[in-house]
Write a structure and sequence with these properties.
single chain; 8-stranded mixed sheet; globular
Length: 247
């Protein structure tokens, strides 16, 4: 049975969607059938990040509500074997009961090794729908104080929903800025109150790849790409550094 991982953030702009696309691509490249589900109703962008915007016709509500079977709704990436997308609907309202979403995720577990849920920022309905059926969660934060405060709130809500395995990814890290602020990744971990899964440096190639509609691993093998790869390794259970050689 596959593992469902909700990728969340307390606020927007932390790079959560980029992380889902990049880590999902790495897991697929490692031989794991991986499904990325965009949960950000009305503001979906994961299809753009993966370069699948012209292919994703059905969304997760079509599957959840029985209008289309899962195997026909998902879209396979043309360049990365075992990488699949199930997109979010364009518009509100989102009228999917949690039990219905849990049934969809049960189906997905039977077909994929990993299911990554790109939850919307904040603690609204989309977040709760992603959290209701996940096996573990990743909270994505930058190192600024407001993002870490919102990460704390996200952790509290995940705990309330009895999500037991929750890890932190510190994204878009600028080492020189951390030095000027006299802060460290350990400080970020202490503030969020979470064990660390990975660290990803700020990298212009992330935005460049997204704008080109190509997964990062097809465009780069340094910087953020190494950080995302190491996160995928650690999700597999490998003992690898949280940070890449860029450090």
């Amino acid at each position: 049975m596959g593992t469902v991982i909700a990728v969340t953030s307390g606020k927007g702009g932390t790079g959560k969607t980029s992380l889902v696309g990049a880590v999902g691509s790495c897991l697929a490249a490692l031989g794991h059938p991986t499904l990325c589900i965009d949960m950000d109703v009305g503001l979906r962008n994961l299809d753009l990040t993966l370069g699948l915007s012209d292919r994703a016709l059905m969304d997760f509500t079509d599957v959840a509500e029985g209008r289309c079977p899962l195997e026909k709704a998902v879209v396979e990436h043309p360049e990365i074997q075992d990488l699949f997308l199930l997109t979010a609907p364009f518009s509100f309202p989102l009228n999917v009961p949690e039990d219905t979403m849990k049934n969809l995720l049960t189906q997905a577990r039977g077909a994929f090794d990993y299911i990554l849920l790109d939850a919307p920022a904040g603690l609204g309905e989309g977040f709760h729908l992603a959290a209701c059926g996940c096996d573990r969660a990743i909270v994505v934060s930058t190192t600024d104080a407001s993002a870490l405060r919102d990460a704390q709130r996200t952790v509290s809500e995940l705990s309330r929903r009895q999500v037991e395995q929750v890890h932190l990814v510190v994204n878009r890290v600028q080492p020189k800025l951390l030095k000027k602020l006299h802060t460290t990744i350990d400080d970020a971990m202490d503030t969020a109150g979470l064990p660390l899964l990975g660290v990803v440096p700020e990298d212009n190639l992330v935005m460049l790849a997204a704008n080109r509609g190509r997964p990062l691993i097809l465009c780069a093998n340094k910087g953020a790409a190494i950080g995302y790869r190491n996160i995928a390794f650690r999700i597999e259970g490998r003992r690898v550094p949280v940070m890449g050689p860029v450090w």
